[in-house]
Design brief:
The chain folds into 3 domains: 113 residues, Butyryl-Coa Dehydrogenase, subunit A, domain 1, CATH 1.10.540.10; 108 residues, Butyryl-CoA Dehydrogenase, subunit A, domain 2 (Beta Barrel); 147 residues, Up-down Bundle (Butyryl-CoA Dehydrogenase, subunit A, domain 3). Helix content is 50%, strand content 15%. The chain has a 4-stranded mixed sheet. Helix 5 packs antiparallel against helix 7, helix 7 packs parallel to helix 9 and helix 9 runs antiparallel to helix 10. The protein is globular.
């Protein structure tokens, strides 16, 4: 039986990590929170805010300084996503996809030429998107139908991608396509596709339950011409690129979920101290206290799981099981904590006048994207029983 924990859970941040956390927390309160309501109504991120993400270095946290990035690690990306999610999950997932999917993928798999061309832009002014899902291949990621055909010194891509986060803003998309369907998943290849490439278009934007300001779009590839040098990794090894990147991305989703849960719990703790029933603040009722204590305990457990998975990845240790567990548990905790928050706010919690209904809606996506809860259970069980 494999060892479940290969490193002690992180219980204390370094001075540098703590400073970074406070910097992002201050930024979230000062710059993000005043914009949340307007962005929610518009179902779009404020462009001025996007520029500030780049200015603060939040779009290139793990990109090396030689490429204009911050030279940080995965845990720092996790801290940023958690802090932003405690205020607004839409802005957090924007930063999350950039760092834990697109940047991480290029850093690990791209050629030196691709790194020189794209990493400086991703660190300073270019948004990235990760395009694996398709209309008929969500959890069955390797059932994708997008086709890549070699034509001289370039590739021609044809197909559709769906549910692509950051699709509306991205200038660079990592597109997965199959170069030979007879090979099955061993034909899948990753390509760096710029927004301006001929034959590339952004299609329908989804109208979602939660994370509404985050763009989720269709991508259309109609005889899209991609230079041969824009293959990421090796031809036919895109399945490995996709899976290993998603393992890291799941830690980012776990960070998002603990941030959402924390935001909801923080708002609730303030409210129950103020809300009077039967002549007393409802915080004085033992039934309420016990519910809050349980929520805080589960949140702390989820946080340690997420941090530990990030630390393992940063240390070069095996982390696939821990990432799946962290994403699974954190998303479950976020659902429970945000639901409790709505209940403790009572009728007010069901209105848009108070913040917890948004946390409740934003939490649901955590059990779906970057691998459903059933997919996480499948991964965990497979590793336990191998």
């Amino acid at each position: 039986m494999p060892e479940l924990v290969t490193a002690a859970p992180l219980t204390k941040l370094t001075e540098e990590e703590e400073l970074f956390r406070h910097t992002v927390r201050d930024f979230a309160e000062r710059e993000v929170r005043p914009r949340v309501a307007a962005m929610e109504r518009a179902a779009a991120l404020d462009p001025a805010l996007l520029a500030k993400f780049f200015e603060l270095g939040l779009m290139g946290i793990e990109i090396g300084e030689q490429y204009g990035g911050a030279g940080g690690n995965l845990l720092m990306s996790v801290l940023a996503v958690e802090e932003l999610s405690a205020v607004d999950a839409s802005t957090a997932i924007f930063v999350d996809v950039q760092n834990t999917l697109v940047n991480a993928l290029l850093l690990k798999w791209a050629s030196d030429d691709l790194k020189r061309r794209y990493l400086p832009r991703l660190a300073t002014d270019c948004v990235g998107a990760y395009a694996l899902s398709e209309p008929a291949s969500g959890s069955d990621a390797f059932g994708l139908q997008t086709k890549a055909t070699r034509q001289g010194d370039r590739w021609i891509l044809d197909g559709r991608k769906l549910w692509i986060t950051n699709g509306a803003e991205a200038g660079l998309h990592v597109i997965f396509a199959n170069v030979d369907f007879s090979l099955g998943y061993k034909g899948i290849t990753a390509f760096a596709v710029e927004r301006g490439f001929k034959g590339f278009a952004v299609g329908k934007r989804e109208d979602k339950l939660g994370i509404r300001a985050s763009s989720t779009t269709e991508l259309i590839l109609d005889q899209c011409a991609v230079p041969g040098g824009n293959v990421i990794g090796e031809v036919g090894k895109g399945y490995k690129v996709a899976i290993e990147t998603l393992n890291t991305g799941r830690i980012g989703i776990g960070a998002q979920m603990i941030g959402v849960a924390r935001g909801a719990l923080t708002a609730t703790l303030t409210y129950v101290r103020e809300r009077q029933q039967f002549g007393h603040p409802i915080a004085e009722f033992q039934g309420v206290q016990f519910q809050l204590a349980q929520a805080a305990t589960e949140l702390e457990a989820a946080r340690l799981m997420v941090y530990n998975a990030a630390r393992l990845e940063d240390a070069g240790e095996p982390y696939t099981m821990q990432a799946a567990m962290a994403k699974l548990f954190a998303s479950q905790v976020a659902e429970r904590v945000t639901s409790l928050a709505v209940e403790l706010f009572g009728g007010y919690g069901y209105t848009k006048e108070y913040p917890v209904e948004k946390f409740y809606r934003d939490a649901k996506i955590g059990t779906i994207y970057e691998g459903t809860s059933n997919m996480q259970l499948h991964t965990i069980a497979k590793l336990l029983l191998k």
